Amino acid sequence: MTAGGQAEGADRDSASARLPSRVAKLLSALFYGTCSFLIVLVNKALLTTYRFPSPIFLGIGQMAATIMILYVSKLNKIIHFPDFDKKIPVKLFPLPLLYIGNHISGLSSTSKLSLPMFTVLRKFTIPLTLLLETIILGKQYSLNIIVSVFTIILGAFIAAGSDLAFNLEGYVFVFLNDIFTAANGVYTKQKMDPKELGKYGVLFYNACFMIIPTLIISVSTGDLQQATEFNEWKNVLFIIQFLLSCFLGFLLMYSTVLCSYYNSALTTAVVGAIKNVSIAYIGMLVGGDYIFSVLNFVGLNICMAGGLRYSFLTLSGQLNPKQPVDEENIPLDLKS
Question: Which keywords has UniProt assigned to this entry (predicted)?
Fold first, then answer.
């Protein structure tokens, strides 16, 4: 074989080697967007349509589902993560605190704002994530990426400026949710080293450490009592949706970790923004809680344009962070 033929073959091998990572990046982003889309709709139905009064209790159900699914999967050798030792809390910190803050503020804000305005205000997660990735992870992004991010924020400002259903408590909760989400995404990316806890270990031990403190908060605030006294527990449709929310809570946490693992925390935030604008469009047609205005509609479209521009830049290779090797799925005999 000639040198040219060898070079051509090497190029083909290199291209085929890159293909799985590109597929993983795309599929993980689509998986996260789908799960995030579905859980907002289900939680909105539980907290508003059924008027379920206990968002913290719902979060506990999602944590419990995560623990059970991951533990059973570990017992059946479907996945692997390290057994507990005294170093794990140190390795995880501050993720458990960010995890519970993200959970509670997210569930609380969903119930206090109209669906379209909730999705608009969640856009502020994106510049916070960009800032934290720059500070904590040392990432650098191109000017085009930064412009795309701030296009999304410009659209959010325009849309929020016409909010005719202002709710101060809802705004406070959603901005807290933005801060917790950004910090949680960046620190999760930092903690997912397969040689340490790995993505499954981060998910499992986060849920384990925070389910008891969350339960204490639920009891002390009366959230648990309201949940036990809720009069829809005999309604089969409500129970199905509650269990579906718990399962989707696990899928959302898992898909968030996967998307950050194969892409970046910023990409995960932008995928969430695109998903949120899609929900806003749906909220205009169904749900009955959208108050139309020209500014709000124009702002939503600017948000979508910025998100799609970011996606194009990402897929065209202007945002191409080094892809991790998924060591958790490598057979043990190949690791040695």
Answer: Membrane, Transmembrane, Transmembrane helix
